[in-house]
Amino acid sequence: MLSHFPLGTVADRNCSCWLGAEPAYSNDRSQGDFHRTSNLPPRPRSQDFGGLSAGGSREALPLLRVARIIASGHRDAARSVTICEEERMPPFQRATPTSFRAEEVSSSPLTGRRELLRIGCACCLALVAPRALADAMTPEVERHLAAAEQAAGTDLKALLVLGKAADPNFQAPPQDVEKLIALPAPPPGKAFDNLYFVGGKWVSSWALTTSDGIILFDAMNNDNDAEQTIERGLRTIGLDPSKVKTIIVTHGHGDHYGGANYFARKYGSRIVLSEADWTMMETKPEFDRPVYGRPPKRDVAVADGDKITLGDAAVDILITPGHTMGTISPIFDVRSGSQSHRVLLWGGTAFNFGRQPERLQAYVDATARAREVAKQRGVDVFISNHSFYDGSIEKLATAASGGSNPFVQGAPTVERALTVMNECAQAVLTSWKA
Ligand SMILES: [Zn+2]
Predict the structure, then answer these.
(1) Is 156 found in the same domain as 265?
(2) Which of 84, 107, 135 is the last residue of a domain?
(3) What is the Cα–Cα distance from 186 to 201, expressed in whole angstroms?
């Protein structure tokens, strides 16, 4: 009877699976670097890969192709390809694993390796290719990363995380959404006279006060967040949650829309999303799981260039495709004493949509366009819907202690932030094409 030993994690930004081998497999690091977990049996030292085992959920089918390619590089040894399980699909793509069994491999090693490069799973590549190939980062990729780093200076380094995927050896750390959601919320705070932070540690919610109620930007993960963090936060800072007339959901992922229904049900708040993201949520939700509130029913759909008004406030809708194809990055004015400032709230930051070059190109274009728009419009405040990127929680604490408002960064800094994101996106896109 054949036994199958897990060999390593195969992962890209979308998914991962186990590779196993029987009866023996290589432990030679010159074969490449791959990742082990502590519960794996010791690997026999052998160049004989025996039979390769691989598999996963239906969603890990690209990795099955990778497994085939690996097997094609070891045709003499490839006798069996069996099951592995996807481990680290992004939450929005996670599904009950469905086993499959791979068929015999017949492609030539050369074709297979090209295919592998196209798929771009560095860990798999490392199993069959010289290490130098797996490590390669082209000069063009390095140029983009250097440009991003230069633009980041010392104050925007958090955004540089976006460029990490340009390294062929990079493995995205697993994201435990439940744990992130469970992080205790920071106290609500005032960023400007008419803009308040009422979000959590992981995902933000911003309240813009107007002469006729409140516009909320994003509603966090679920009813509990809406009630315990946003609603309670509004009350804590002296605002009436029943005045939330409009919720602009920056994009159709569960961590931003999940609490919207709570306000719609309780206070009749209108929910605004882009046409593209309403459609995505209705037809092919990208980032949904039970911990999130249910996607809201279609309400107000907006397009690029639209304006949402409430009382004395106007919010310009800038659509910045990439993170989702209908991400809204709103632009609006805020006040700090006698000073007026203009905010760009970047609506979707991570490249967590898998290897979709056209989509990442859209992100590159969106950041370049937003940079021009921000310059023309005199935007001098850049904030995010995840505080990791904009340091909003730390800034709130600083703002509360008096002195100059740390949210007012100035137009050149806004431009630099968009350059960091743009260059990181270009670096990753270039690495995909390498
Ligand atoms: Zn998202």
Answers:
(1) yes
(2) 135
(3) 6
Among the residues of 158-302, which ranges form H helices?
A: 177-182, 223-225, 232-236, 254-257, 260-267, 275-283
What is the distance in A from the centroid of ligand 1 to the CA of 386? Answer: 9
| Shared-domain flag, residues 90 and 159 | no
**How far does residue 351's CA lie from ligand 1's centre (Å)?**
9
Indicate whether 257 and 342 sit together in one domain. Answer: yes
User: Does 43 share its domain with 115?
Assistant: yes
31/79 Cα distance (integer angstroms): 20
Q: How many domains does the chain have?
A: 2
Structural domain range at position 371? 143-433
For ligand 1, the distance from its centroid to the CA atom of residue 419, given in whole angstroms, is 20
Q: What separation in Å is there between the alpha carbon of 129 and the centre of ligand 1?
A: 34
Q: State pTM to two decimals.
A: 0.71
Among 188, 273, 183, residue whose Cα is nearest residue 230: 188
Q: Are residues 178 and 279 in the same domain?
A: yes
Same domain, 359 and 324: yes
Cα–Cα dist 318/12, whole Å: 31
Amino acid making up residue 419: T
Centre of ligand 1 to C-alpha 353, Å, is 9
User: What residue type is 217 in one-letter code?
Assistant: F
Distance 352 CA to ligand 1 centre (A): 8
Instruction: Report how far ligand 1's centroid is from the alpha carbon of 349 (Å).
Output: 7
Does one domain contain both 108 and 177? no
pLDDT in tens, the chain (434 residues): 333 323 333 333 333 333 332 222 222 222 222 222 233 333 333 222 233 333 333 344 444 444 344 434 333 333 333 222 222 333 333 333 333 222 222 233 333 333 333 333 222 222 333 334 456 789 999 999 999 999 999 999 999 999 999 998 888 888 899 999 999 999 999 999 999 999 999 999 999 999 999 999 999 999 999 999 999 999 999 999 999 999 999 999 999 999 999 999 999 999 999 999 999 999 999 988 899 999 999 999 999 999 999 999 999 999 999 999 999 999 999 999 999 999 999 999 999 999 999 999 999 999 999 999 999 999 999 999 999 999 999 999 999 988 899 999 999 999 999 999 999 999 999 999 98
The domain spanning residue 203 has which CATH number? 3.60.15.10
- Beta strands, E only, 280-319: 300-302, 307-310, 313-316
Strands 16-22 vs 331-336: parallel, antiparallel or unpaired: unpaired
Please tell me whether residues 224 and 357 are part of one structural domain: yes
